[in-house]
Amino acid sequence: MNKKRVSDEFTSRTSETEAAIEQEHSMEGRPFEIRSARIGMFRELLSDSTGFIGLAILSILVFGAAFAPWIAPHGPTEGTLSTANLPPVWSTAGSWKYVLGTDPQGYDMLSRIMFGMRTTLLISTLVVLIAGIFGVTIGLIAGYMGGRLERWITGWIDVQVAFPGLLIAMIMIAVIGGSVSSLVFVLSFNGWMVYARMTRGVVLSVKQQPYVEAASLVGASAGRVMFRHILPNLTSALSTLAVLEFARIILAEATLSFLGLGLQFPDVSLGVVANNGRNAIFSAPRLSIIPGLFISVLVLAVNFVASWLRVALDPRERDKRFAATVSHHGGVQQ
Amino acid sequence: MTDAPHHTILEVDNLCVDFFTRAGTIHAVRNVSFDLVANETLGIVGESGSGKSVTAQAILGLTELPGRVTSGQVRWKGEPIVSGPNAERNIYRVRGKEISMVFQDPMTSLNPVFTVGMQITEVIRRHLGFNKKQAIERAIELLDLVGIANPRERINQYPFEMSGGMRQRVLIAAALACEPALLIADEPTTALDVTIQAQVLDLIASLQKRLGIAVILITHDLGVVAGVCDRVAVMYAGRLIETADAFELYATPAHPYSAGLLRSTPRIDVEVSRLDSIPGAPPDLKIFEQGCAFVPRCNRATDKCAHHRPTLDITEGTRRVACWNPIHA
Amino acid sequence: MIRYLAGRVVQGLIVIFGVTIAVFVTTRLIGDPVNFILPLSASLEQRARLRVDLGFDQSIFVQFMDYIGNVARLDFGTSTKFTNQDTLDIVLRFLPRTLILVAAGMIIAFSVSIILGMLAAIRPGKVTDKILVTLSLFGLSMPQFFLAQMLIVVFSVRLGLVDIGPGPWTHLILPSIAIALPAIGRLAMTVRSAMIDELNSQYVKTAKAKGLRRRRVVAVHALRNAAIPFVTLAGWELIRALAGFTVVVEGVFGVNGLGGLAILAIRERDFFLIQTIVFVVAIFVVLINIVIDVVYKFIDPRVKLT
């Protein structure tokens, strides 16, 4: 929320020019510098231990999930009551056949988790793609066109944002039933606004930059300049946003399924598995805790990656981080 | 001019400030030394990047990351305030009370969510222990002192309700609240339009005389320094390269850089077809050159200049120049 | 100020009106509401009869008029699950527990996140900061139900603490913490980054140059400005908690509040009850938004309330 400050016309103009000059010394918004920032991205990864761990964990989980049908020890709904409630491998009666034990229906926990992760990741990816494409398009339209169309779109976004997402999602699922496609629909419906807002913000801020005006004064077309500067700014912010949204959708889907309002049998997702173990929270907490743990680790890894991306793609952030490490030298003052 | 004692109140002794960035270490201030006498007005002049603001902030211990004072000392009335075991305690005693500072951009130097009055009274109450009522009265006096009309009303106003010039006056008022012995003004007029500039400078000059305070005025604009300062110090690439009486500097600059600066200042009484400028660009502050830093841009450079760096102890009367080949009168 | 409030109330009423229309439209859009209410096994006769009973057989326009009239009289229909009780009564009965839960949770969340955020911002990159950032990240990454369950497992394994204590509200302590934790994660990060930004600003430099005590510079000057974005996000967290997470937490801890009621209503396909719940929640959302705007005015004098 940036409330505009009342100021002298003259002084604001002078500070604008100074800001433009300062820009020359900073890296903000210059396409080739952001491109070179991206090249240093992976080098940054090696020094950013959390990002590295995150990416590593994420790769393992994605790999396990993607190849679940081939490498999972059992099917997700394969089991009978005779194999019900077997303990996991680290407990005295456990075995490697059912590494994480089985649930009251006799299904193998590990397999259910792998298949569940598969569905979860699928849903999240789809939602991020759909909501992202839709949102960015709307945002670009709003930003470029301006005028009444922009105000109308912004109003629509504000209204939709004000509505509590979980409640709406719950009701919608209740009405149209729970399945992978309905979840994707509902979550995209509730999730596109943030992309639109961000895109519009980037377009507007680039529009206002003095160098756009300066470029058109020199003879370059303002539109072309804007495009060259919007795109790199957009991809950086968008990547971070998309990854964060990815994490959020995983949590949202898990919550919906946990409440029994998401996927229904025989579909399985991490939330479904957690829900199945809900009633046994006092007797066999592992049934609910283990899927919850997997979700947490997955989302944590994604968040680590997002945090790495944010720093790696923005040269100024990297400088800040560098400055912070310097403070470890003994200072003469402060 | 009051019959003020002429003793040294500020000693800056081989101050060095470095900035640690990913691109390398920038040596912004390199062995800067000067003294200040009570009631004196010193102007520090230099282009952007010469290290003048950094020096000023270092004096008050306001250097922020990624910068750090790496060596040197500053003494206020004999006590160290920059390095050494007592420095931190001393500087807290001194800041805002005996040495005050006014910064460049009045638009952002005031907290937008508090009243102007509060931002003055808080200084008074912090250092002088007044109660609320007394502090408000004093603040009104101060606003009057700096030439703000209707001070009683203005005191409850917010910064956004004031113009740039007025805000700068408020900042000066807050700086003078505890009757400091030294006021450091870091480019106080750069962000203001020209007519307001003159007003603020007049204000500083008159306050200096009335209250008998010492002033360090930092600027890149030689025109600003002329009417206000007794002495002028010129900085280039992090070093002091000339200090002289203001009048002498303007009449007969010794260092080629000072001469170049003077030449490039546009004048209203002389008609020129082209504006003079000093050829070349300021040096990279990440490296220490072997000789004088100004050599690449100097038309008087000799072989000695390129290999031996001149220091600021070459004297000609009351002025000091760091040059092997200064311009003689 | 009064004029402003009045204006906002009117605005709020319009929004609520919009909500009621939206509810009306969507429930009619997705097909025959009767099909929603009755199980698949119901016969055609039963459906027809219900349709007449509930007035769904009349034209859309008439239905709408009836609907508006009912809403104005605060008649939201009777519940099918809690047979024949007025839905509004039911909702109001379950509301207080949720309000207390959310209020307690948010008070904890706001105070803790401000303190933690400030502490982290003062020494960015140092130990406190790193710990805070890591903990926040963990808190953010865990699904709400997992946090709640972990709280249960930890506290019931150790102490069986869930229900103990004097007074009727102590069983809400643990759920309040469950609500507070993810909010703390998000809010503390916001406070931290807002404070870091403010501490780098020019007016803070001026304040330091004035020789003001560090405590004052941080907790008075910087905090007040950092509060501005904080208030926005705090408001959102409050709305999210009230209209979303309370459902999960109440479900896990077995609290009889609005959240549990909502799940029940959805599962039982209690049409009118759902409608009423949405309505009540919308009112709160509007109220909270109004409060946020008013708080802005108190914090930031530049805000002109028109």
> By helix and strand content of chain A, what is the structural category?
mainly alpha
Strand content of chain A: under 5%
Count the beta strands of chain B.
12
Structural category of chain B: alpha/beta
Low-confidence region ranges of chain B? none
Summarize the structure.
The complex is a heterotrimer of chains A (334), B (329) and C (306). Chain A has helices at residues 9-25, 31-39, 41-47, 49-66, 68-71, 109-145, 147-162, 165-176, 180-191, 193-208, 210-218, 222-258, 270-276, 286-313, 315-326.
Your description of this structure?
The complex is a heterotrimer of chains A (334), B (329) and C (306). Chain A has 334 residues and is mainly alpha-helical. In chain A, 72% of the residues lie in helices and 0% in strands. Chain A contains 15 helices and no strands. In chain A, α4 crosses α14, α6 runs antiparallel to α12 and α12 runs antiparallel to α14. Chain B has twelve helices and twelve strands. In chain B, 33% of the residues lie in helices and 24% in strands. In chain B, α4 packs across α5 and α4 packs parallel to α7. In chain B, β11 and β12 form a beta hairpin. By secondary structure, chain B is an alpha/beta fold. With 306 residues, chain C is mostly helical. The longest helix of chain C is centred in the last third of the chain and has 40 residues. Chain C starts with a helix and ends in a 7-residue tail after the last helix. Chains A and C meet through α8, α12, α14 and α15 of A and α6, α7, α10, α11 and α12 of C.
What characteristics describe this protein?
heterotrimer, A: 334 residues, mainly alpha, 15 helices, disordered N terminus, B: 329 residues, alpha/beta, eight-stranded mixed sheet, four-stranded antiparallel sheet, 12 helices, 24% strand
Outline the secondary-structure elements.
The complex is a heterotrimer of chains A (334), B (329) and C (306).
Chain A: H1 9-25, H2 31-39, H3 41-47, H4 49-66, H5 68-71, H6 109-145, H7 147-162, H8 165-176, H9 180-191, H10 193-208, H11 210-218, H12 222-258, H13 270-276, H14 286-313, H15 315-326
Helix pairs in contact in A: 3-14, 4-6, 4-14, 6-7, 6-9, 6-10, 6-12, 6-13, 7-10, 8-9, 10-12, 11-12, 12-13, 12-14, 13-14, 14-15
Chain B: E1 8-21, E2 24-37, E3 41-45, H1 52-59, E4 67-76, E5 79-80, H2 87-94, E6 99-102, H3 106-109, H4 116-128, H5 132-145, H6 151-154, H7 164-176, E7 182-186, H8 194-211, E8 214-219, H9 222-226, E9 231-236, E10 239-245, H10 246-251, H11 256-264, H12 303-307, E11 314-316, E12 319-321
Parallel strand pairs in B: 3-8, 3-9, 6-7, 7-8
Antiparallel strand pairs in B: 1-2, 1-4, 4-5, 9-10, 10-12, 11-12
Helix pairs in contact in B: 4-5, 4-7, 5-7, 7-8
Chain C: H1 2-29, H2 33-37, H3 44-54, H4 60-72, H5 87-122, H6 127-141, H7 144-158, H8 173-199, H9 202-209, H10 214-253, H11 258-267, H12 271-299
